Amino acid sequence: MKVRVKWVEEVSFLAQSESGHAVLMDGPPEGGGRNLGPRPMEMVLMGTAGCSAYDVIHILKKGRADVRDCVVDVDAERAETEPKVFTKIHLHYTVTGKNLKTEHVERAIKLSAEKYCSASIMLAKSVIITHDFVVIETQ
Fold it and tell me: Cβ neighbours of residue 43 under 8 Å, at least 6 residues apart?
């Protein structure tokens, strides 16, 4: 897997993936940026949530669950001093579907966290990561 990050101006960078996609990363105005894109550390959290949401949906669908939606809200804390690494990350899943079993959703999240989501498993080696979830019944 390869990516390329190219400096655009000030604190703006264009990240390009091997699969042909691009994302502009930028800083806040008070840091010299124009707030045109997410910060790099936000991208880490977005990638982690995306990786895990992908797993949860895949696992539930493979188990023939009638899952309709999955939203992962992430709340993270960073160290006060440099390097300002993540110290805690909490993932809150809202999984919507018809006749979803709580234990199946819990199992899917656990499998993602412990076996499949490379991003969260990598981060968990140095960050406290917690999870919780709610299941919403739909018609």
Answer: 15, 23, 25
